[in-house]
Amino acid sequence: MHPSTFTLAVFLGVCGVRAQTTVIPSNSFSSIATFEQYWNYLYPWGSDHNGAARMVGSSSDHSHINAASNTLTLIATPTSNAVPPTSTANPHPAIHYASGTVYAKSQITVTASASYTLYGEFSSPTAVGTWPAFWLTAVAGWPPETDIGEWKGTANNWFNTFNTSSIVRSDLVAWPTDLSFHSLQAVLTAESNGADVRIDFSMDGVHKATQYGAGFVGKALWLIIDLQMEGSSGSPGPGGTTTYKVRNLKVTHT
C-alpha cells in the first residue's frame, strides 16, 4: 500500500468513516458492451415470471432489451399467437407479450459493515396492464423482497417490503403519467439488532417512506429491472408497444 493510501485508511478508521465502493457505476447502460459487464439478460430463473410477458433478450437479440447513452430501454410488444402459451411460473398466466428483463451480476447483501444505496431515474408507463419494476428479491428462498419501483397500471409508484407473503408494508407515491424521468433511491442499512434492515425510500430527492425488512441482514438479493405485463396491473394491457426506460442507475455500498 502506498504511504498516502495507508494514511488515508488510518484517518478514515480513526474518524469512523467508511469508504464508499461503487458496485454498479452510473455508466453501466452507456453501451451494450458496458451493460454486459454488469448485467445479465432475463430473470435469474429464466424468461417467465408471474405476469403475461415472456422475456426475450441475449447478446445477439436487443429487440426488447437495449442500452445506450446511459439509458436502459425495455420494450414490450403484443404477441400474435392464436393460442397463447402459458407462463412456466406461478400462477401460470397466458403469455400475451414479449418483453425485457435484466438483473445485476453483483448480488446485494446487507451486513453490519455493508450498507447499500441504490439510485436511478425512471420513465415508467402507468397504463392499465403495464407492470414495470425495480426490485430486490432473495437469491435463495423467498422473502426477502423489496420493491423500490413498482407501477401496477395506475399513476402511483409502490414502495414495498415483504417480510412474509402476508406481512407486507406498502407506501404509494403519486407518479406522473407523462413518461418524464423521476429519480428513486433506496438506502438499506442494518439495524443495531444485527438481523433487520432499515430501508429509506426517496423520490426526486425527497424522503417518502421508511420500511423494515425482518431478518434481511446477511441475505443475498438479486437486483432486477423488468417490464412485466398484465397480472397485478390489470388487463387487457396495451395493444401496441410499451416502453420503460431507466437511466443513470448507480449502486454503492459503504
Question: Whole-Å distance between the termini?
Answer: 20 Å
CATH architecture: Sandwich
User: What value does the Rg take, in angstroms?
Assistant: 19 Å
Element pattern in H and E: HEHEEEEEEEEEEEEEEEE
β-strand percent reads: 35-45%
How many domain regions? 1
Tell me, what's the shape?
Answer: globular
Count of helical stretches: 2
* CATH class type: Mainly Beta
Low-pLDDT residue spans = 3-14
The biggest sheet, with number of strands, parallel, antiparallel or mixed sense and barrel status, is: 10 strands, mixed
Question: Please, what is the average pLDDT?
Answer: 94
- Coarse structural class: mainly beta
Helix content: under 10%
Number of strands: 17
CATH topology: Jelly Rolls
Protein name: Endo-beta-1,3-galactanase
Word description of this protein:
- The chain is mainly beta.
- The protein has one domain (18-253): Jelly Rolls.
- Helix content is 8%, strand content 44%.
- It contains 2 helices and 17 strands.
- The protein has helices at residues 3-15, 32-38; strands spanning 21-24, 39-41, 53-55, 65-68, 71-78, 97-99, 101-104, 116-123, 130-138, 145-150, 156-162, 168-174, 182-190, 197-203, 206-213, 221-229, 242-253.
- The strands form 2 sheets. Strands 1, 3, 4, 5, 6, 8, 13, 14, 15 and 17 form a 10-stranded mixed sheet that branches.
- Strand 14 and strand 15 (206-213) form a beta hairpin.
- The protein is globular, with a radius of gyration of 19 Å.
